[in-house]
């Protein structure tokens, strides 16, 4: 199921304006604890934001930062930017001034739309904003009056389908993230191939997400995909906890839950898990990090809900390998999403036979334009139609793919490859282990050895040795961690993934 848009194509028209033209303007689009908004409501709010941005001097192709909590203002601002042909830059609204300065300078954004709760931090960084003409602060009375004074009518700019429309940021584990420039066509491609083709969303679906909208995974699954079919999205600004999530599910009865492995783990381990009612869900998805087989089994046993693991990247926007309802193989990510092609290759790009671990290459009409101000990395990653990922995977004879880790996370121990995920999955089978991360540490002899970082439910003097023995009994001895370090929490990247670079540093 693929979609080839006309040359003049704007994703805001595809996802929002088209629903109103179809006669679905009165259907509920957004849901919060306070009220609902129809597709026509969202369109009018978006038009007001677009007109306000024009008033601020924004023209097509200029960047506009959004730093807002999940809510109707985020959605309206995003579509308002797109409708005037400008480019969306989504950032975490909880950034500190140092990180905000980086985004100001790197993106050269014309306007930043921020929540009043984040105003102080964004104001503090303005000295490092060479192109910023205005800070639009949502929640302030002056901004609300200004928006209300704007026209609710706005013709959508006839963008080219290959124009950049949203900057996504790679989830690198070290340094500042680099921008991935994605086109209008990319978002339409994966919306139809995965959102409609694999998840099979319909107008009767209700989506709810653990990650927030500034994360491309959530923007797709909890906004673009439901909007493409006239469904509804549940939004809440609060930090997600299992208690809050159980309550949101009880209250709004979603049919699709957009999840991540960390929260899956928190949910199944919560004391109230056995009493939680998830019967409204027809499926849940998991992405962002590998989903261990043990964690999948615990989820299925606890909630009885289909959980679909998947792999996607900002460079090929969203999921291109996914499990399917009724055909999940725990420990694998599933099979290729129609509309994409995936190969497992050696260092020279030659395709490897099934069963061997190699580099991920993928192609499809969601390939990014490139990295902003990173020509060398663009040339390395984008080779013709193919995106050459830093991920290592394995395909079996049935076409199911297993994620083996980032290339720079894979460990060569005693001349043999070790996938950290395999050891992490083994550790998670121990009743005392809540979360685990394995990284390679170079010892005094210059040899790489696996070290495990563990969040445990108990602490006793002999637990580290017990965990080492636990792995040795179940895996080949060379895979057992040489050291086990206990933490209260993991360092995480701007996207919430475990920062393995900092874990390596912590051992030195």
Would you mind describing this structure in some detail?
The protein has 508 residues and is α/β, with parallel strands linked by helices. The chain is built from 15 helices and 26 strands. A nine-stranded mixed β-sheet has the order 2-1-10-9-11-12-13-14-15, sandwiched between helices. A seven-stranded mixed β-sheet has the order 6-5-3-4-7-8-18. It is globular, with a radius of gyration of 23 Å. 49% of the residues are buried. The model has no long low-confidence stretch (mean pLDDT 93).
Question: Quick summary of this structure?
Answer:
The chain has 508 residues and is α/β, with parallel strands linked by helices. The protein is built from 15 helices and 26 strands.
Note the main attributes of this structure:
7-stranded mixed sheet; 3 domains; Rossmann fold; GMP Synthetase, Chain A, domain 3; 9-stranded mixed sheet; 508 residues
Strand residues, percent: 25-35%
Please give the domain count.
3
Rg (CA only): 23 Å
Profile the largest sheet.
9 strands, mixed
Question: CATH top level of the largest domain?
Answer: Alpha Beta
What distance lies between the first and last C-alpha atoms, to the nearest angstrom? Answer: 50 Å
Give the tally of β-strands.
Answer: 26
CATH topology grouping of the largest domain: Rossmann fold
- If classified by CATH, what would the architecture of the largest domain be? 3-Layer(aba) Sandwich
**Which outline best applies?**
globular
Q: Low-confidence spans: pLDDT under 50, at least 5 residues?
A: none
